[in-house]
């Protein structure tokens, strides 16, 4: 998925800087909250929500790993 003009996915998220990952995390969490508040969510949006939840989990884990 595209975040701030960059293609970010489960295969390449580790290649971004810690600052970029923090920015992506904030954006993904905001997008997830917005989708969860929406009442009429289309099937495509549900898939998008799942992908965002999965990616933010990977990013959080990577940020934690880098902080050790």
Q: Main sheet?
A: 2 strands, antiparallel
Proportion of helical residues: 55-70%
Give me the secondary-structure category. Answer: mainly alpha
Residue fraction in strands: 5-15%
User: How many structural domains does the protein architecture include?
Assistant: 1
Report how far apart the termini are: 28 Å
Summarize model confidence as the mean pLDDT. 96
Reading the helices and strands in chain order gives: EEHH
Shape summary:
elongated
- Contiguous runs where pLDDT drops below 50 for at least 5 residues: none
So how many helices? Answer: 2
Strand tally: 2
Strand order of the largest sheet: 1-2
Short description, anyone?
With 68 residues, the chain is mainly alpha-helical. The chain has two helices and two strands. The relative contact order is 0.19.
Topology (SSEs and partners):
Blueprint: E1 2-3, E2 6-7, H1 18-37, H2 43-67
Helix pairs in contact: 1-2
Describe the model.
The protein is 66% helix and 6% strand. A two-stranded antiparallel ribbon has the order 1-2. The termini are far apart. α1 packs antiparallel against α2 (43-67). It is mainly alpha-helical and 68 residues long. The model has no long low-confidence stretch (mean pLDDT 96). The chain is elongated, with a radius of gyration of 12 Å. It has one domain. It contains 2 helices and 2 strands; from the N terminus they run ββαα. A hairpin with a 2-residue loop joins β1 and β2 (6-7).
């Amino acid at each position: 998925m595209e975040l701030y003009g960059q293609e970010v996915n489960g295969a390449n998220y580790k290649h971004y800087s810690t600052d970029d990952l923090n920015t992506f995390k904030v954006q993904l969490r905001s997008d997830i909250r917005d989708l969860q508040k929406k009442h009429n969510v289309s099937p495509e949006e549900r898939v998008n929500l799942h992908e965002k939840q999965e990616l933010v989990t990977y990013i959080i884990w990577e940020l934690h790993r880098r902080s050790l």
